[in-house]
Amino acid sequence: MYLYREFLTPDDEEVYDxxxxxxxxxxxxxxxxxxxxxxxxxxxxxxxVLERSVRVRWMNNQEVTLVDIYRECATRLSFSPGxxxxxxxIEFDMGECAGVMDIQIAPHFAIEDRLLFR
Length: 118
Known about the structure:
Blueprint: H1 12-19, E1 24-25, E2 31-36, E3 42-48, E4 53-59, E5 65-71, E6 74-81, E7 86-93, E8 97-106, E9 110-117
Antiparallel strand pairs: 1-2, 2-3, 3-4, 4-5, 6-7, 7-8, 8-9
């Protein structure tokens, strides 16, 4: 039997303290953060607390999608700020599977995703 787990997320103030900008919000309550690197690539990270979902879209400087990941069953969202790096960490629990997605924002974009059977 799978029990519902809450999706724990930082408040908007912590988002601002980490990235220097407030998250946008759409009409459905999805929180959206948009990042650009020096080469013109962009990364859009969005999350919806009640749906326990996240989406990562990474586009090149010509707005061609390089990576588009959507996943549900998120349980925890946190940020790992540093002097030279900034990361978004998302933990997932899907009953038989659990994992972590690590999205590096600075000094450059990178995504590491691990989802494994227990």
